[in-house]
Amino acid sequence: MIAATWPVGRNGRLLHLDPRAGRFRDTSLAELPVLLRSGDLLVVNDAATLPASLAAVAPAGARVEVRLLGEAGEGRWRAVLFGEGDWRTRTEERPAPPVLRPGDTLELDGLRASIVSVWYPSPRLVDLRFDAEGDALWSALYRLGRPIQYAHLDAGLALSDVQTVYASRPWAAELPSAGRPLSWELLLGLKRRGIALSALTHGAGLSSTGDPVLDRALPLPERYEIPEATVAAVAGARASGGRVVAVGTSVVRALEGCSLRHRGRLVAGRGITDLVIGPGFVPQIVDGLLTGFHEAGSSHLGLLRAFVPPSLLDAAYSHAEAEGYRGHEFGDSSLILAAA
Amino acid sequence: MRMQGAAALVTGGSRGLGAALGRALAREGARVVLVARGAAELEAVAQGIRAAGGEAHALAGDVGDPRAASALAGAAAALVGPIDLLVHGASTLGPVPLRLLLDTDAAELERALAVNLVGPFRLTRAVAGGMVLRGRGLVVHVTSDASVVAYPRWGAYGVSKAAFDQLARVWAAELDGTGVRFVSVDPGEMDTRMHAEAVPEADPASLADPALVAERIVALIRGSDTFASGARLEASAMVVS
Question: Which CATH superfamily is domain B7-237 in?
């Protein structure tokens, strides 16, 4: 599928897949209010996107790029290191960074990070600790960092290009892209039609590293927080026969990961999930999913297979490709939901 | 609104009314993030609040900078959580000494609009979507009587503040029923550096103390559920509860 190469307008094309009927149909996001029904619940990921790409100098002067995955507790940050260069080079073609050891330091412009741990399965996956905290750290991260991006884009992104219209806490290493095409015109329209809207925060990590060993391990464990109000909204929707529709694979992972940890129940609060959803997984909470178009072999596409039979997914993707739907984070949308 | 534990983002927080609002909000138990261009002055205000037992953070930034909004909103939410209260206290007079419109460069007017109107719009846009999702939030526009009275020589400032008032009203109309509310507050003439720059001949004794005005505005914020969203209020007319 052709990648969308630049953020385009909201309310784009939508391919609706109905897993029960075994059908798909071309439509548009503006039709979402009639594809959902009163009593349904749309759950979004309100994580803002971090300026997670940082240029740094390793010991002996090697230039590296640090891509932050998120805070890992006790003042640590989990990160993936890339060799010299930037997003303009395909990740697969980037030189490997030098192998660092605990105690090694990375110099950023006015900020220093020391390596605390080096992780299996790749020495590029590390925990680091910055020499600043609180106001000073966050000011420095926002001064130095840029959004993570990939070689399919035409130009450098600004931080505002990678935020949803409801972005709140900066927990996401990459844009929670399923929500990117949603406008408030559309969201308030849904609410007016009796479709509820709730949020959780999920620290979505990297979609690709270019390191085959590390890419096979994706998605790495990610943290989430589900507010009390969202737990109540899910219970309310289910009790009244409404459907729970996740906006993005990160929301599916948070809801199903939380449910799995608590024996089928959603419990408000923070958690970390290492759940990898794929074919054969039976969702316990989520009935449907608004998402983008994902690359073959990606964990995101694997997750869709828990919701859609392989023959339908393959047929829908062939159709989308033939019809010129755009893929990747600024691409078009798909809705996986049995017709009302 | 409930002040204890509320996450508050206050621009123009390094001096005058903005700093006083930061102190008053922190005294009420709010978790305050202050924004201003001058890092040293700002940090001193935050340190003063912390020394008094409050929670305050300092983020240096220029609200007139188009890249600032995403960064300030993100860093603030990282420090104190999703923002419950946004106070637009930062503003610029435009060219000083104040001058006639015929003597004002278009670039000076544009700068006044960037700081007093477009910057606050960007910051609200970066924060209010999350507020709508949570079903609550308050945005305070600090305005001026120059937004309604055509004072000669206050053109750049007055025009920007008039548009700023209307911005609050349109936000309020569009987000009516979402739980996110807007209010414009005219603090009146205060003994601040900004006022001294605008009216150097004024007698400071005739001007209000920004700390007292801040107390009145915090009382208003506490009782903001009783005002119509989009209202424009004068601090001098308020009764402190």
Answer: NAD(P)-binding Rossmann-like Domain (3.40.50.720)
Residues of A in contact with B60 (CB under 8 A): 139
Q: How many residues does chain B have?
A: 241
Whether B151 sits among the annotated catalytic residues: the reply is: no
Q: Which positions 178-207 of B are in contact with A (Cβ < 8 Å)?
A: 178
Spatial separation of the C-alpha atoms in residues A210 and A96, rounded to whole Å: 10
Q: Report CB contact under 8 Å: B73, A169.
A: no
All residues at 6 or more sequence positions from A271 whose CB lies less than 8 Å from its CB, including other chains: A223, A224, A225, A226, A257, A258, A261
Cβ-proximal residues to A288 (8 Å cutoff; 6+ apart), any chain: A243, A244, A245, A246, A307, A335, A336, A337, A338
**pLDDT digit string, tens, across residues B96-109:** 999 999 999 999 99
Calculate the average pLDDT of chain A.
94
* Cβ proximity of A145 and A14 under 8 Å: no
pLDDT tops 50 at residue B219: yes
- To the nearest whole Å, the CA of A115 is away from the closest chain B CA by 22
Cα separation, B20 vs B26, whole angstroms: 10
Does residue A1 have a pLDDT over 80?
no
pLDDT in tens, A306-335: 999 999 999 999 999 999 999 888 899 999
